[in-house]
Amino acid sequence: MFIKPKKSLGQNFLIDRNVLEQIVDTVEITNKEVLEIGPGSGNLTTFILKKNPKKVYAIEKDDELALLLKDKFVDEITIINDDVLKISEDKISSEKLTVFGNLPYNISTEILSKWIVNINKSFWFENLVLMFQKEVAERIIAESNTSKYGRLSILSNWKLNIKKIIDIKPQSFSPRPKIDSTLLLFTPRDNFFKIQNAKNLEMLTRVFFSQRRKMLKKPFNQVFKNAKEISEKFNIDLNLRPQNLEAEMYFKLVKEYESLRC
């Protein structure tokens, strides 16, 4: 049964055997529960099953592909025919999952942000092995004082340790995308910085990075009534730019913002 990839769902099926093997070899999954996001035609699913996981769940939004997967794997996997953005992943299993995902490029950052923001005290996953457009991956792993560093870097590194695994060329997919891809491994941070509401982190970084070339003085005055006092408390030079502050400083500023609003 041939399924034509749907451009509207950002479907690019991974077909390179060597890359598929590298992905499943990133972490140990034997006798562990696995969640695959957007399995498509099931190429990666086949390699996951070869590793003898305890159980495999697969979230597939496309109705046709969900049927294809059901026919192809029968009882080997549990198919969830739904939108990943509308699912509560922590309700899927009582065990911590290892997640694999060739994420649709048009919603990849939305998916990652949703997972990070919704984590409270405990993590529902053990590892995330996710593929992104290379340019997006570079923003995720970017460090302060670099041009790629910004809101996504800060949010991603808040609760997760991140490691780049490999870059993947367009010819590894069908249809071929116009850009390179990058595989990243995310693991939970043992102790992440506690703030009351993730929306405050999103707000503060949005204000600061909406004019990333401007000095810090302007966004500081937008967020804090006592901007000079706050900057002195944290020894921040307001002549610097948003990309010059490390992620940890943004977390501290959010906590300060929340304490002032109490």
Which structural category fits the helices and strands?
Answer: alpha/beta
Assign the CATH architecture of the largest domain. 3-Layer(aba) Sandwich
The CATH superfamily of the largest domain is identified as Vaccinia Virus protein VP39
Rg over CA atoms, rounded to whole Å, is 20 Å
CATH class of the largest domain: Alpha Beta
| Total beta strand runs | 9
Low-confidence stretches: 5-10
Distance between the termini: 59 Å
Q: Whole-number average pLDDT?
A: 92
Order of neighbouring strands in the sheet with most strands? 4-3-2-5-6-9-7
Which fold name is given in CATH as the topology of the largest domain? Rossmann fold
Please give the domain count. Answer: 2
Outline: elongated
Strand content: 15-25%
Roughly how much helix do the residues carry, as a percent range? 25-40%
Secondary-structure element sequence? EHEHEHEEHEHHEEEHHHH
Work out the helix count: 10
For the sheet with most strands, the description reads: 7 strands, mixed
